[in-house]
Design a protein that fits this description.
mainly alpha, three-stranded antiparallel β-sheet, about 70% helix
């Protein structure tokens, strides 16, 4: 793997997981020493992170980790409404019914794992798999590319929010309803159930008290 790609992936993971926090300055010299590479691949990685919206210019020199506010989250979910609902609609029209029946069945039991899995790994892996199956079923690479960028920022919001097993159990039921609608090739219901899930997910995200405390980079 090229040094620039390795640096990009490592820094992206650090930002998404909040090991690098909003407003934190990312200097080329410090990162070069930390990562054990020259400044050129570091500069390349930082440029890609800025293109992703994960970092932003800082006082004309270097970059800082981008902040996330409640307004950012609202805007993100406005875009999700357009992209996710269309993807679910296309998946219902084009997807394999059996694939989504199997997903719905697994989602109907996933709540049982939440209390014994503090990091909810099994839940998030299943949700990620469902996203991938919807992407594949939609058969639209441009839509998939747009969703990939949205999900990158959603991963940051997920880490910021406290994982509430009760909310995750409800979310699992919402995902199950989406999967069953797609399995029945009911495009209108797939859109409706997706919209319900997004509305509830936004409400949960906005209740995160840390959002108000996130510093705005200057």
């Amino acid at each position: 793997m090229r040094a620039g790609e390795r640096a990009y992936r490592e820094l992206r993971a650090d930002i998404v997981s909040w090991r690098l926090t909003p407003g934190q300055v990312l200097g080329e010299v410090d990162l070069s020493e930390r990562l054990g590479i020259s400044r050129t691949p570091v500069r390349e990685a930082l440029s890609r992170l800025t293109a992703d919206g994960l970092t932003e210019p800082h006082n004309g020199r270097g970059v800082v980790v981008s902040a996330i506010s409640s307004e950012d989250v609202r805007a993100l979910y406005e875009l999700r409404d357009t992209l996710d609902c269309r993807a679910a609609e296309l998946a219902a029209e084009r997807g394999d019914r059996e694939t989504f029946r199997e997903l719905a069945e697994q989602l109907s039991h996933i709540a049982e794992t939440l209390t014994g899995d503090p990091d909810h790994v099994a839940y998030y892996e299943l949700v990620d798999r469902m996203d991938a199956e919807i992407d594949a079923a939609a058969q639209n690479p441009y839509l998939q590319q747009a969703l990939a960028n949205v999900r990158l920022h959603l991963a940051r919001v997920r880490r910021l929010s406290t994982s509430n097993p009760r909310r995750l159990a409800v979310a699992a039921a919402e995902h199950e309803a989406i999967a069953r609608a797609i399995a029945e090739s009911d495009a209108a219901l797939a859109v409706a159930t997706t919209r319900v899930h997004l509305k509830n997910a936004l409400g949960n995200a906005l209740r995160t008290p840390e959002l108000a405390a996130v510093p705005v980079a200057s």
